[in-house]
């Protein structure tokens, strides 16, 4: 599997993601400039990554301007053809703004930027993973019908929990509805999450739980 990482003005986690994919997972990685359009070097077995940061300074809304960049038009086409797309933090916001994923990311409930380790879990996986978060607008929200569909179709990837896997509002770092930390689309090829697996992928970081996230998503 080959990876492409889209770099927007204001991206600041693109090199973190590149390092994790290249050096910790031994993957081929190409950096993609937001003004370019060509994705012909990728097949639908490959993955395009939208990294964290503050694309276009988060003006208007987080991800609202990046959604209209030339490269994103190609990413949308790539996803609609079945190609894999991963959005982390600001990338998750861009995916929602692009309507590749349902819902929105709202300002954190505490109205403060949060930067710390969080624990997340998938109901099918059954193991709590320690993954860092760093965001001011990470509170996932969607209407009840959408939420019920996400739950019924197993499209909720991760929920915030404690270190033992207990899901409770007490351990919700941003007030996300139903403790949701990440979701996927109905086709199972577009993934979005607020926590940063690329920041937990190496022994030198003291944490390799991020590698478990990539494996769980089938991106290994």
UniProtKB/TrEMBL annotation:
GO biological process: 'de novo' IMP biosynthetic process
Active site: 89, 196, 198
Cross-referenced SUPFAM superfamilies: Class I glutamine amidotransferase-like
Enzyme Commission number(s) from the entry: 6.3.5.3, 3.5.1.2
CDD domains: GATase1_FGAR_AT (cd01740)
Gene Ontology CC: cytoplasm
Gene3D superfamilies: 3.40.50.880
GO molecular function: ATP binding; glutaminase activity; phosphoribosylformylglycinamidine synthase activity
Catalytic activity entry: L-glutamine + H2O = L-glutamate + NH4(+); N(2)-formyl-N(1)-(5-phospho-beta-D-ribosyl)glycinamide + L-glutamine + ATP + H2O = 2-formamido-N(1)-(5-O-phospho-beta-D-ribosyl)acetamidine + L-glutamate + ADP + phosphate + H(+)
Pathway connected to this protein: Purine metabolism; IMP biosynthesis via de novo pathway; 5-amino-1-(5-phospho-D-ribosyl)imidazole from N(2)-formyl-N(1)-(5-phospho-D-ribosyl)glycinamide: step 1/2
Subcellular location: Cytoplasm
Domain of life per record: Bacteria
One Pfam family per UniProt: GATase_5
Alphabetically ordered keywords of this record: ATP-binding, Cytoplasm, Glutamine amidotransferase, Hydrolase, Ligase, Nucleotide-binding, Purine biosynthesis
Subunit architecture: Part of the FGAM synthase complex composed of 1 PurL, 1 PurQ and 2 PurS subunits.
NCBIfam families assigned: FGAM_synth_I (TIGR01737), PRK03619.1 (NF002957)
Role this protein plays: Part of the phosphoribosylformylglycinamidine synthase complex involved in the purines biosynthetic pathway. Catalyzes the ATP-dependent conversion of formylglycinamide ribonucleotide (FGAR) and glutamine to yield formylglycinamidine ribonucleotide (FGAM) and glutamate. The FGAM synthase complex is composed of three subunits. PurQ produces an ammonia molecule by converting glutamine to glutamate. PurL transfers the ammonia molecule to FGAR to form FGAM in an ATP-dependent manner.
Protein name as annotated: Phosphoribosylformylglycinamidine synthase subunit PurQ
Annotated organism of origin: Panacibacter microcysteis
